[in-house]
Amino acid sequence: MSDADLQLLLQYFKALADETRLRIVGLLAGREHSVEEIAASLGLRTPTVSHHLQRLKDLDLVEMRRDGTTHYYSLRLGELLRMNRELMTAEKVRSLASMEGGEAWERKVLRDFFSGEELKEIPASRKKRLVVLRWLADRFEYGRRYPEAKVNEIISRHHPDFATLRRELIGNALMQRENGVYWRVPDTANA
Amino acid sequence: MSDADLQLLLQYFKALADETRLRIVGLLAGREHSVEEIAASLGLRTPTVSHHLQRLKDLDLVEMRRDGTTHYYSLRLGELLRMNRELMTAEKVRSLASMEGGEAWERKVLRDFFSGEELKEIPASRKKRLVVLRWLADRFEYGRRYPEAKVNEIISRHHPDFATLRRELIGNALMQRENGVYWRVPDTANA
DNA sequence: TATCTACATAGACATACATCTAAGTAGATG
DNA sequence: CATCTACTTAGATGTATGTCTATGTAGATA
Questions:
Q1: Which CATH number fits domain B3-94: 1.10.10.10, 3.40.50.300, 3.30.420.40, 3.40.50.2000?
Q2: Is A29 close to B104, i.e. CB distance below 8 A?
Q3: Which of A3, A20, A23 to mutate against chain B (most B CBs within 10 Å)?
Q4: Does pTM top 0.85 for this prediction?
Q5: CA A127 – C1' C20 distance (Å)?
Q6: Over the stretch A69-91, which tens digit does the pLDDT of each residue have?
Q7: Which of A36, A69, A142, B13 fits a disulfide with A17 by CB distance 3.0 to 4.6 angstroms?
Q8: Cross-chain Cβ contact B77/A96 below 8 Å
Q9: Residue nearest to nucleotide D29 (CA to C1')
Q10: Per-residue b or e along B45-76, where b marks 16 or more CB atoms closer than 10 Å to that residue's CB
Q11: A20, A50 Cβ separation under 8 angstroms
């Protein structure tokens, strides 16, 4: 599975896909700078600069040296060039697709959003939310009829906002309702 | 001046700093795909995919082949690897900082006086007003001739007092006028 | 201890942009 | 010509994130 590769590439590109951070990298390439120096050079406030330095540090692209209360940051140019060289190769690019085809990706979504049986958060993107909803729908047996209270209780085992999730299950045609009674519907979108 | 380098780098990183686009790149690395195929693979709508393909095409990272009404997209892997290799070198990184000093202040002025594309207020000081006027002049293409009505309309997008601003553009020799026709003039003060 | 300095962290806010629906376009088909 | 298909374009909407102010913290200084 190439998911780790993809996420690392994504982190790398996101870290550098910002004009301010590129300028900071440029400044640090010349010599080490304190946070205040950077802020003055770029016309920004120090918290803003701290924030960007943190993001660069997350990828080990910069390192910090303390001197009193002053923090001097410098660029790890070798690390930057190494990542750039090793992350983007013909092989890596081709491997980005090796996970497509659905199933591996869906398991990843479930891993990301569940902690055990508990849904940590309702995914914002339609695509990922549908994966979670299919999983939820699978908590219901085919052919069985559930009163609304029972539906709420089952969903509540996994997430407190049962009302939203119940509505989404209906909206995405994973379950049907009539006179306050619910039942599971075969998932045609999966075919 | 390294600004062109910085902007190109920025475009490149922004283009790839998105999970969907990385997945598309991965898919196209294997073989050409139609828009519908990509949309189906990723669980997205076709307009979304078109949008991403357009962004990749802007950087010549993909190319398109028509067959009837179907558009087949494929990856220009060589171009991708070339950009990655040539954009991020020790030299280029160091050059990112070569422009600091004056320009930071100008960006600050623009930040202070603009709210998005809207000029909140015409700066009173000559120096700051000139920064704003240069920005306004950049809304006009070199070599193109604009009737006065068009000039007014373009300026109006950013501030209601187009008459004053249009006069200032002429007065500061950022644009020229003859027989009611306007055109952009190279900014000599920038050299 | 009290204060000051240089940063970091938290939270608010605004902008950029990924995605969607709706509408438009151009080639294929009857 | 009318219709269908595959795609693109336009406009709306929600989320992610860059920047800010306010506040917290750790080392220096008196």
A1: 1.10.10.10
A2: no
A3: A23
A4: no
A5: 12
A6: 999 999 999 999 999 999 999 99
A7: B13
A8: no
A9: A68
A10: eeeebeebbebbeebebbeeeeeeeebbbebb
A11: no
